[in-house]
Design a protein that fits this description.
Blueprint (H helix, E strand, L loop, with lengths): L1 E6 L5 H10 L6 E3 L2 E6 L1 H10 L5 E10 L4 H8 L13 E8 L6 H20 L12 E8 L2 E7 L21 H11 L7 E3 L6 H10 L21 H13 L9 E5 L2 H13 L6 E5 L12 E4 L11 H12 L5 E6 L4 H5 L5 E4 L8 E6 L3
Parallel strand pairs: 5-6, 8-9, 8-11, 9-10, 11-12
Antiparallel strand pairs: 1-3, 1-4, 2-3, 4-7, 6-7, 12-14, 13-14
Helix pairs in contact: 2-7, 3-4, 5-6
């Protein structure tokens, strides 16, 4: 039985735990930034193949209390690294620190690399190469207070990097966060869904993938766990084929996105085509205040935040009026502006913190009555 955890964004604890349960994985404990679980290789494979709302899946190798920062090197050095990956593989170390014990996290990232290399030299006579750009093996460690965790990242590149995005808008929403917003909204494929600030189209595209049961791994070329000695390529291929075979067609799907930026809409169309859902989404060059009523569905968006709410009051007033015409719908908006709720002048039935990367945001949900 392996100990594992999924790294998650702030505010995604509930949606991640539910998504895990939907694929037969039980969340054992929720901590800031991660959800812990246990399982065999099938659980690890399914987690990297099927989870839409997490950033990484880490196989935890060791978890211990340390007394001083010098203990980090000793803990890493004493592990049997040649049993975990080949000396011919390239590796990279990621080290996250939330502890007063460590004064220089960058220095200790290098020291962890040294400890791994020293172990290989002692056991194999030579060291593996470090590759910070595209390594085969990703060592993932964190220190919280005195608790040191040492693990291997099973995904490699973060799981929000689905592989379908061929072009980026300057304020593109990460794919796992867009999927979480769709899942949090309560949207069902029988309902219309519209994004009036769609940018490069991430929210409608993720909704299309959810509706068609397309696994988030469908476009990924590689996972870091494929370089582990215990990796079973045949079993992984079977589970991946099962995930792909679960895709369905959804006749009459009503997905749309709009933006005032023609370049952004062109990007959205290209990304949708890359994801194979270009026929499922309608794109419109349109400002949010001109949005046609969405009845009995979901309006969901990550609008521009702006430094001051009054900078775009005309836009917000027009959009608020358009939103009030969406009878029987839920309006879901991710916002970082602290004055947004008062300025938008509607009372949300639900709001929760949901960070967009390093930006502290709030997800507001409004019910427009019939």
């Amino acid at each position: 039985m392996m100990k594992m955890y999924a790294t998650i964004g702030v505010g995604l604890e509930t949606v991640v735990s539910r998504e895990m349960a939907s694929i037969g994985i039980t969340a054992l404990r929720v901590e800031p930034g991660r959800v812990r679980f246990e399982g065999e290789w099938d659980e690890l494979y399914r987690s990297v193949l099927l989870l839409r709302t997490v950033s990484r899946i880490v196989r935890e190798l060791q978890f211990e209390e340390i007394e001083q920062e010098e203990d980090i090197y000793d803990a890493i050095r004493e592990m049997d690294w040649p049993a975990l990956f080949s000396v011919d593989a390239t590796f990279r170390v990621t080290f996250n620190v939330h502890s007063s014990l460590v004064r220089n996290s960058r220095f200790w990232t290098y020291r962890i690399k040294d400890a791994i290399a020293d172990c290989f030299v002692a056991k194999c006579g030579r060291r593996p190469d470090v590759d910070t750009a595209s390594p085969q093996v990703h060592v993932y460690c964190y220190l919280e207070n005195r608790r040191l965790s040492i693990g291997l990242d099973a995904a490699g590149d973060p799981l929000h990097m689905r592989g379908y995005r061929v072009t980026h808008h300057q304020a593109s929403l990460r794919e796992h966060l867009a999927a979480a917003m769709v899942l949090q909204s309560g949207w069902q494929p029988s309902m219309p869904l519209h994004d009036p600030f769609c940018g490069s189209g991430t929210i409608p595209i993720e909704a299309a993938l959810i509706a068609t049961r397309t696994p988030p791994s469908a476009f990924r070329k590689r996972f870091a766990c494929e370089s582990w000695p215990e990796f079973d390529p045949d079993r992984f291929a079977v589970l991946r084929a099962e995930a792909m075979a679960s895709r369905i067609e959804v006749p009459g799907l009503r997905l749309s996105g709009a933006d005032v930026d023609k370049t952004a809409l062109d990007q959205a169309a290209l990304n949708a085509k890359s994801a194979g859902v270009e026929k499922l989404i309608a794109w419109r060059e349109q400002d949010a205040g001109s949005m046609q009523p969405v009845l009995g569905g979901v309006v969901i968006a990550n609008p521009p935040y702006g430094e001051r709410l009054d900078e775009g009051m005309e836009v917000w007033a027009a959009f608020r009026q358009a939103a009030l015409g969406c009878k029987g719908s839920t309006v879901v908006l991710l916002q970082a502006n602290p004055g947004f709720e008062k300025g938008f002048s509607l009372r949300p039935f639900k709001k929760n913190r949901m960070n967009n990367g390093a930006i502290a945001c709030t997800l507001y949900q409004y019910k427009i009555r019939d």
